[in-house]
Amino acid sequence: MPIVTIKPQDKTQEGAEGTTLREVIIAAGIPLNECTCAKGYFDNCHAFITEGKKSLGKATREENERLDQIVGVGSKSRLICEAKLGPENVTVELLGALSG
Fold first, then answer.
1. What tens digit of pLDDT does each residue of 64-87 get?
2. Worst-scoring range by mean pLDDT, 2-11, 15-24, 66-75?
3. How far apart are CA 42 and CA 70, in angstroms?
4. How far apart, in whole angstroms, are the C-alpha atoms of residue 61 and residue 72?
5. Which regions of the chain does DSSP assign to beta strands (E)?
6. Using alpha carbons only, what angle is made at residue 59 by residues 16 and 27, rounded to the nearest 5 degrees?
7. Torsion angle in degrees (nearest 10) through CA of 15, 18, 22, 24
8. DSSP H or E segment with residue 65
């Protein structure tokens, strides 16, 4: 199973392929705010993938449209509620309200 490294908390957690990053982060014991993407607020799930981005499932058109609405989005940006683990390890950097 791939290992997710979560920054800035420096925690690691195994996760099964197909599991969302949000599920893995919660399993690591990191408290997260409610996912508000369905309500049109995407900041709660915005994070940078600093390693292993190509291993994640491809971002959907809907995810890319949601990312376009967030200030500070970059090429490493993904929504943790939508990004699903692939076979390789991933490092995710939680931003703002996510970083604790």
1. 999 999 888 999 999 999 999 999
2. 66-75
3. 7
4. 19
5. 3-7, 11-14, 46-51, 77-79, 90-94
6. 30
7. -10
8. helix 61-67
For residue 92, the cross-strand partners are 6, 49
> pLDDT: is 70 or 38 the higher one?
70
> CA-to-CA distance for 17 and 19, rounded, in angstroms?
6
Eight-class DSSP state of 31: -
CA-to-CA separations, 70 to 3, 33, 34, 44, in angstroms, rounded: 27, 17, 17, 10
Q: Domain 3-99 carries which CATH code? A: 3.10.20.30
Residue matched to tokens 């508000």? 36
